[in-house]
Write a structure and sequence with these properties.
- It is a single chain.
- This protein has helices at about 10-20, 80-85, 105-110, 125-135, 145-160, 185-190, 205-210, 250-260, 275-280, 310-325; strands at about 1-5, 25-35, 55, 70, 90-95, 120-125, 140, 165-170, 195, 220-225, 230-240, 265-270, 285-295, 300-305.
- With about 350 residues, it is α/β, with parallel strands linked by helices.
- The strands form two sheets. It has a seven-stranded parallel beta sheet, with helices on both faces. It has a seven-stranded mixed beta sheet with strand order 9-10-8-11-14-13-12.
- Helix 1 packs across helix 10, helix 4 (about 125-135) packs parallel to helix 10 and helix 5 runs parallel beside helix 7.
- The radius of gyration is 20 Å and the shape is globular.
- The relative contact order is 0.14.
Length: about 350
């Protein structure tokens, strides 16, 4: 049994961490932090958690007694507390963007912040960094868009099949966080599709960084907000300067099946099947399908994930399971909520 604490537990990702961890057989939640809601039961903020006895506190990073701390805090906040947590003996899984980049200058450029406390972190995508995660004290949990995009395209980069990848992602409104805003106001999003940050979204260099670990590919990324609550559907269009005329859908499928055959949370669909958001909603699974090639050599691969689970809290718990040598799918093995 390990003791864990959650800083920033009042947000959507914090609520999902509590939802899964309260039923994890090897975890005791010893503290959930929210300065805004000190003294409130968690179900007052997360109504689905009625029955939980947890109360929000204002936890001091210097005095938390926990084996592991999840920092589900805004970008720029985690860097102020992670060094103290590590010094105090806790392992940390950070769900912000503060430690995802190998080059601090990339973070500072895309997030517009000076990094106060650069540290070496392991990028928490188990499908690539499983062995490093097992030995880590600090995990940088991937962004939601990068999770779906990297899983959809990593085999193409690894096999050096493509030179250029264009990623088009559709995301649910929960990705904008729990605080209301004009962009997510119901009349502005319902019956609508809104592209945003069409060439300068800060998840683009994160995708680029990870795909370039395998081969040099150029990545373009545009997100769209769609009127659903949960999920990210990513369509990737990949190209090569030297078209392999022998490559077909069947061979593509075999490449993906080989890459992900031992991955507990990546499901490669059959030819002709298209991933659906409802199939992964509420789960830590990623579904990958498409595997189409047109006459120009364009390869189309599609992935579907729940942005709050595989794209955030579920993946963080997967990382925790690896760090503490629990069964990988412990506590997060439920199927999606379809319909």
């Amino acid at each position: 049994m390990i003791k864990i604490a959650i800083i920033g537990a009042s947000g959507y990702t914090g609520g999902e961490l509590i939802r899964f961890l309260e039923n994890h057989p090897h975890v005791e939640i010893v503290g959930v932090s929210s300065r805004q809601h000190v003294g409130k039961p968690v179900y007052k903020v997360h109504p689905n958690l009625r029955g939980s006895n947890l109360i929000f506190e204002d936890l001091n990073p210097n005095s938390i007694d926990a084996d592991l701390v999840f920092t589900a805090t805004p970008h720029g906040t985690s860097m102020k507390m992670v060094p103290a947590l590590l010094k105090n003996g806790s392992k940390v899984i950070d769900l912000s963007g503060d430690y995802r980049f190998k080059d601090v200058s990339t973070y500072e450029k895309w997030y517009g912040l000076d990094h106060e406390s650069p540290l070496n972190a392991v990028y928490g995508l188990p499908e690539i960094y499983r062995e490093d995660i097992k030995k880590a004290d600090l995990i940088a949990n991937p962004g939601c868009f990068p999770t779906g995009a990297i899983l959809a395209t990593m085999p193409l980069s690894k096999e050096k099949i493509v030179d250029r990848i264009i990623i088009d992602s559709k995301t649910g409104v929960s990705g904008g966080g729990i605080s209301p805003s004009e962009s997510f106001h119901f009349p502005n999003i319902s019956d609508n599709i809104n592209p945003y940050k069409i060439i300068n979204h800060r998840h683009m260099p994160e995708i680029q960084q990870e795909l370039n670990e395998f081969s040099k590919v150029k990545v373009s990324f545009t997100p769209h907000l769609v009127p659903v609550i949960r999920g990210i559907l990513t369509t990737s269009h990949s190209f090569s300067n030297e078209i392999d005329t022998n490559l077909n859908s069947g061979k593509l499928l075999k490449i993906y099946e080989k890459q992900y055959k031992d991955e507990p949370f990546v499901k490669v669909l059959e030819l002709g099947e298209i991933p659906r958001l409802s199939s992964v909603r509420g789960s830590n699974f990623a579904h990958i399908g498409g595997f189409e090639i047109d006459e120009t050599g364009r390869i189309v691969i599609i992935s579907a994930i729940d942005n709050l689970v595989k794209g955030a809290s579920g993946q963080a718990i997967h990382n925790m399971n690896l760090m503490f040598k629990f069964k990988e799918d412990e506590g997060i093995d439920n199927y999606g909520l379809h319909p």
